[in-house]
Amino acid sequence: MAAIMFLLDTDHVVICQQQPAPEYENLIRRVRLLDPLDLFVSIISFHEQVMGWNAYISRASDSIGVVRGYVRLERVLANFSHAQVLPFDDAASEVFNGMRKQHVRIGTMDLRIASIAIARDMTVLTRNSVDFTRVPGLKVEDWTLA
Predict the structure, then answer these.
(1) End-to-end CA separation in angstroms for the chain
(2) What is d(CA 126, CA 110) in angstroms, rounded to the nearest whole number?
(3) 39-63: buried (b, 16+ CB within 10 Å) or exposed (e) per residue?
(4) Nearest to 128 by CA among 119, 138, 137
(5) Is residue 56 within a helix (H) or strand (E), and if so which, with residue range?
(6) Mean pLDDT, 10 residues at a time, over the chain (146 residues)?
């Protein structure tokens, strides 16, 4: 029997980074039960976080803000360098294009994450079940709930 593999949505990545209670405790309790080789993040989440901190740095009005932004950007790089990062490859692109043709109505980045998961037969871990459950064939769970 093949292991179930999980892909963290960006919101679950942020929870791992910021560790808010009780969401972090609920999530980490379940993550610790997994084989580490069954848990992944996507290049899409990395892209989203880099874009966010780049925008923060661009808007910074003083050197304190610029320094803070670069510190956080460096932390994102360090976090992702220690994770199993999945690419948005040809298989995911094919799923993505098929979903667009079906007029699946969710944000582009979320649909890219969902496409990676579908192409690799993975379950997406997210709090955003409203959007992700709109994707046909996608398995979705929220591990931040008790």
Answers:
(1) 28
(2) 10
(3) bbbbbbbbebbeebbeebbeeeeee
(4) 138
(5) helix 43-59
(6) 88 95 96 96 98 97 97 96 97 98 97 98 97 97 93
User: Distance between CA atoms of 114 and 52, rounded to whole angstroms?
Assistant: 20
* Short-list 8, 13, 14, 33, CA closest to 86: 8
What the chain holds in terms of domains, given with CATH numbers, is: 6-21+40-140 (3.40.50.1010)
DSSP 19: -
Q: Is the pTM of this model over 0.90?
A: yes
What separation in angstroms does the CA of 123 have from each of 1, 99, 110, 144?
Answer: 16, 17, 13, 15
